[in-house]
């Protein structure tokens, strides 16, 4: 007999096929002469109904072992189902119980559980319908991301997790050290003696792989990163994680227009792939989580994104007949409420805002000719606000040095980054996408902690 995944059986299985399924019991229903169990192996939202007749060897003994949560292996033959909701079912010939689950203590009985409760049992929550759907969509998103860049000839580069630089300049860094914190070595002026540390200098978990990706783009033209990043931001909100994944492409010989074109095509590709490969999961989110999920996806796929400057955005917001919580004026950063107004009420589709004030953007963004704005671009999406942030990078050595010093940073700390402008500099651009924010946006899940298997947040590092 052939071992088959349940998703493939439900799609293509035919009566009289002999096969083996392995998975976990979702439900058990006992009747006088036989019993039904639903088995799910994580490959699909729906499980496979299995019929256990009394002529099954050790029927009574096996039935006592089978409860919700038990791991089973069933060998049998597919037969047409007479019940509603399924085309075929598996008539069991042999059942092996690999692991029992005590119904008195197993926390995932067949009832609705709150997401707050499920976070307390992170080692089991993936067996629920909601989290099974989330992680299948997450997987499809990751596949689509690699597919998009690989088909365009991008090189996937692995940027360091341990770094000495703060790319964003925000200072929200996790320190990495091998020093004995109960006996920290000190210099003569009582500061920490980092010469005794593993790397002989202060080091941190990375907040972004962008600067290193720029290094690789200066040799391979088009590259992308896809890996974990870290922010020591003490925010207990539904939008923040201390550990999350980032996608960051960098393109040599590219300006802000090319950056916007790629970012828009990228988002459309990922949404289209997920809609094609996870239709049942997306329909589940639309029915159970947020009834605009499918409409949002169609909006992304089928509309050309609106493109406006920051100055135009501010003018539109100032004219809006809306009482915003945060003030609107040129020079202030856009808040989520402003971003959502532009997408949801003004344009009714994704919006790309460009050319932000230089003083609210990072040092590496290319200074515009007016020296007031930079060649930055943010993609704003309905229901979530900013989903992608990017820019043309500053390729002029003198301007970059000036920008670094203006933000209170030391040139010597970024000597290698400046070298890229000394030796073969080119116009180049890139963007960053928070992977979990994308999955949250796509699924309609209300809390970002519920779209990553093991969320890391303030005072929480379980599982």
TrEMBL record:
Keyword annotations of the record: Aminoacyl-tRNA synthetase, ATP-binding, Cytoplasm, Ligase, Nucleotide-binding, Protein biosynthesis
Gene Ontology CC terms: cytoplasm
Aminoacyl-transfer RNA synthetases class-II family profile domain location: 135-453
GO terms classed as biological process: asparaginyl-tRNA aminoacylation
Pfam families assigned to the protein according to its UniProt record, in alphabetical order: tRNA-synt_2, tRNA_anti-codon
Tagged with keyword Magnesium: no
Subcellular location: Cytoplasm
Catalysed reactions, as listed in the record: tRNA(Asn) + L-asparagine + ATP = L-asparaginyl-tRNA(Asn) + AMP + diphosphate + H(+)
SUPFAM superfamilies linked: Class II aaRS and biotin synthetases (SSF55681), Nucleic acid-binding proteins (SSF50249)
EC numbers for this chain: 6.1.1.22
Recorded GO MF terms: asparagine-tRNA ligase activity; ATP binding; nucleic acid binding
Class of enzymatic activity (EC top level): ligase
Stated family: Belongs to the class-II aminoacyl-tRNA synthetase family.
Record-linked NCBIfam families: asnS, PRK03932.1
HAMAP family: Asn_tRNA_synth
Subunit structure: Homodimer.
Protein's UniProt name: Asparagine--tRNA ligase
Gene name per UniProt: asnS
């Amino acid at each position: 007999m052939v071992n088959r995944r349940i998703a493939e059986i439900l799609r293509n299985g035919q009566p009289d096929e002999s096969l083996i399924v392995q998975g976990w019991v979702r439900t058990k229903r006992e009747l006088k002469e036989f019993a039904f169990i639903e088995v799910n192996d994580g490959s699909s939202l729906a499980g496979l109904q299995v019929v256990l007749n009394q002529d099954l060897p050790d029927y009574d003994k096996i039935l006592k072992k089978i409860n919700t949560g038990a791991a089973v292996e069933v060998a049998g033959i597919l037969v047409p189902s007479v019940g509603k909701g399924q085309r075929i079912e598996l008539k069991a010939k042999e059942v092996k119980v690999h692991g029992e689950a005590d119904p008195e203590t197993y926390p995932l009985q067949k009832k609705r559980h709150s997401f707050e409760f499920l976070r307390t049992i992170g080692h089991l929550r993936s067996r629920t319908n909601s989290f099974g759907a989330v992680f299948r969509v997450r997987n499809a998103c990751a596949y689509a991301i690699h597919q998009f860049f690989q088909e365009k000839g991008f090189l996937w580069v692995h940027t360091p997790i341990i770094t000495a630089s703060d790319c964003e300049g925000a200072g929200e860094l996790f320190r990495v050290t091998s020093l004995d914190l109960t006996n920290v070595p000190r210099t003569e002026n009582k500061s920490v003696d980092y010469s005794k540390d593993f790397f002989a200098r202060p080091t941190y978990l990375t907040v972004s792989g962008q600067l290193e990706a720029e290094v690789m783009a200066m040799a391979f033209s088009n590259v992308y990163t896809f890996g974990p990043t870290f922010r020591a931001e003490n925010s207990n909100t539904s939008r923040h994680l201390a550990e999350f994944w980032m996608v960051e492409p960098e393109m040599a010989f590219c300006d802000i227009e090319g950056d916007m074109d790629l970012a828009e095509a990228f988002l459309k590709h990922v949404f289209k792939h997920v809609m094609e490969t996870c239709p049942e999961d997306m329909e589940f989110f639309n029915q159970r989580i947020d009834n605009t999920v499918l409409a949002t996806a169609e909006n992304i796929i089928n509309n050309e994104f609106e493109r406006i400057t920051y100055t135009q955005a501010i003018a539109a917001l100032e004219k809006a007949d809306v009482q915003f919580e945060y003030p609107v004026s040129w020079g202030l950063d856009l808040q989520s409420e402003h971003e959502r107004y532009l997408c949801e009420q003004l344009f009714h589709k994704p919006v790309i805002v460009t050319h932000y004030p230089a003083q609210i953007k990072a040092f590496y963004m290319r200074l515009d000719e007016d020296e007031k704005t930079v060649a930055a671009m943010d993609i704003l999406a309905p229901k979530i606000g900013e989903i992608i942030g990017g820019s043309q990078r500053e390729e002029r050595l003198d301007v970059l040095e000036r920008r670094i010093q203006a933000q209170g940073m030391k040139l010597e700390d970024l000597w290698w980054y400046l070298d890229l402008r000394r030796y073969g500099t080119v116009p180049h651009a890139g963007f960053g996408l928070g992977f979990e924010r994308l999955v949250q946006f796509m699924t309609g899940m209300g809390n970002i902690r519920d779209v990553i298997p093991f969320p890391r947040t303030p005072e929480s590092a379980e599982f």
